[in-house]
Amino acid sequence: MSERTWDDAMMARPPSPDLRVLVTDLDGTLLGGDRAARQRLRRALDRHPEITVVFATGRGLPSIRTRLARDPLLPRPRWIIADVGASVIDAAGMAHVDALEAELRTGWPGAQHVRAALRHFPALLHQDGVPQDGRCSFFLAPEHLSPELTAAVARLGCSWTYSAGRFFDVLPPHAGKGQALQRLADKLQWPASGLLVAGDSLNDLSLFQLGAHGVIMGNAEPALLAQVPDGELVHRPPLEGAAAILDALERVGWVRRPTSVVVGYHRPPVHWSRGRWRRPVSPNGILPTLTSVLGDDTDGLDATWAAALVEEEPGAQASAPVTGLPLALLPVPPERWSGYFHGACKETLWPALMSQPQLIRRAPTHWADYEAVNAAFARHIDAHAADGATVWLHDYNLWLVPGLLGAQRPDLRIGLFHHTPFPSPDVFRRLPDARQLIDSLARLDWAGFHTAAFADNFRRLLAGSGPVPRTGVHPLGIDRTTVSALARERVGAGAAHHRATGAPSRLVLSVERLDYAKAPVHKVRAVDALLEREPRWRERLRFRLVCPPPEPGIHAYDATRTALEAAVAAVNDRWRTDTWQPVDYLPQALPFPQVVDEYLAADVFWVTSVADGMNLAAKEYVTARAATGRPGVLVLSRHTGAAEQLATAALLTDPHSPRDLVDTLHRALSLTPSQRTAHTAALAALLDDHSPADWARAIVAEIRGPATRSVADTG
C-alpha cells in the first residue's frame, strides 16, 4: 500500500446514529489550560472511547507525530486535518488521504512559486524549519497585512488566513480547516449534528461555519469571538483550553462524571446476533445478576459497568446497544479479542482453573493480547473511577488489572470475584506466567470465591508474597422467584414435551455448554456401562444432553466435541432399537422457557463436572421441581461449588471414577417415589433465599470494608 491512501472500508461504513466526533484545534485549544484540566479531559475521553477525536491544526504531520510521542495527556486522534486544512491524515496508519488532498489542493501553484511571487513583500518572513505540506506559511506583523498583499495572493489563485496576530498562511483555493472537515464528513457520512468543533483562533473560523456544535475558548482571539455569530449551537464558556472543551462535552451530554463504583467484566449484558442486540437467555448467572443490581433500581449505587465490546466488521452492527444500564464499553478489535479470549483465556488459563494443567497451551502472541486487553481495561476503569472509588472485577479474564490499576490509582479499593474454581497452588504455578499473575493478584484489597476451599487455595498461593488480600466466600444463588413462577407457568409443557418425544420411563438430563471440564464424554460412557450392567434399563432410559457449542473461534474444546460425537454415535449404534435410542444429543442453546420444560420432564439431573465454580443449573432444576411439586433427583459432582451447599441432600458422584458414575446414576434411577419426594424437599430446603442483587450488594460492601490484609499460613 502506498503511503498516501484512502481506506475504502471506512468509506463504505454507515455512520452510527449516535455518532460523536470531537474536532479540535491543538495550540491554545486541546493543548491549552493547566495540567489538571488536561488530565480531566483525557480521562473523560478515555471514559468514552465512542467519541472520535479529530485534530484540526495548523501544524504539519511531523510536528504532530512528535507531540503525540512526547505528550501523554494528548488523546490519540482517529483523523488529522493538518497544515491549516491542506492535509488530511488517516491516523490509524499515519497515512495521507490522497483522494481528499487532491480535492483540497486543486489549483495549488506550489510553495516555491508562492514564495517567488511574494518576494517583494519584505515584511513576510517565511517560517523556515517548520514542516509545511500544501501550504506556505509566514510570520507577519498586523500592520503589514495590506490590501496589496492579499491582492497578490488572489492573483496566485490562492486563499489565505491570518491568526494570532502573527501567522499568515497561503493555502490552495479550496483548502481550510472547515473545508477539509466538510469533505471528510461527506465521505464518512458524518452529520453536522454529530460534530463538536473547538477552536481559539481565526484559522478555526471555517470550522464554526458548518452548522455543528461548537465551543470557543475563553482565551480565544477577539476577532474569532466577533466573527462567529451568537447561537444555541456555539458555547462560549469563560474557560481556557481543555477545561472549555470538557465543559462543552458535558453540556451536549457526551460525557458523564466518574462514579464511586466501577464493575469490570469482560462481557457486556448483550451480544450481537442475527442482526440485533440480544440479552442472555437465562435469568441467572453473572450477566443477569449485574443487570439487576445496576439497572434502573440501583438502590442508590453510583456505578459504571465497564465491559469489552468486540468491534465487528464495517457495517456489521448499526449502533451501540441501548440497555438502560450505566455501560462504559471498551472497543476491542476482533483479532485482539481472538488472541485474548479464544487463545490466552481458554487455552492457557482455563485448563489451570479446571485443574487440567496438561492441557495448558501458551502462544506468545495470545499472551501479548491478554496483556494488552488487561492494560486497556485498567486505563478504562481508571478513567471511570472517582477518587476513592470501589472497583469490582470479575474472573480470571482480568487477572492483570489489579496490578496495573493499583499502581496507577492507589486510592481505589479493588476486589475480584472468581466465578470459576481456584486451583491448588501447585497447579497454578504450572502456568508459564504464574509469577506475573501472582504479583498482580497480590495488589487486590479483596478476593471473593464460591467456596471456602477455593479461598484457601488463593491464600496459600499468595503466602510469602507479602500481606494477603482479604477473602470472602459468597456462593451465588439464583432468582428463585422467577424460576418458580416460570416453572408453574410451564408445568404442562414439560410433560407434553416428554410424551411427544416418545420418552421411556426414565429421563436423565444434563444442560451444560461444551467443555471438557463438564465431562460429557464420561457421562455417555457411563450410560453405555449402565446398559451393559443393568439390562432392565434398556429401552427404559434416555439420556438427554443439551450441550451448546462455544462461541465461534474457540478451539480449546474441539477434541472434546469430536470425542463426544463419536461416543454418542457408538453408544446409540450399539443399543438402539426401531423405537428407542439411549442418548439424545442437542448441540444447541435453548430459550430458557424450553430449558425449564426440560427440567420439568427430567427424572434425574446429572452434573459430572471435574471442576466447576458453582453450577447454577443444578439449583434451577431443584427450584423448578420443588415449585411444581414434582419430585426429582440431583446427581451432583463432588467437584462443583454447589456441592458444598447441597452435599447433605444431593447424590454426590466422582467423575474421575467411571464405576462411581455408573453406581450413582443407577442409584438415582432406582429411588422410590417417596425417596424422590424427600430428596427434592431436602435439596430445596438447602437453597438460600438471598436474591442475586442482594449477593452483589453484599460483595460491594465487603470490598469497601477496612483495608486490612493478613499474613497467610504457608502450609
Automatic annotation (TrEMBL):
Pfam families: Glyco_transf_20, S6PP. It comes from the Bacteria. Residues 20-228 form the Sucrose phosphatase-like domain. Belongs to the glycosyltransferase 20 family. This is Glucosylglycerol-phosphate synthase.
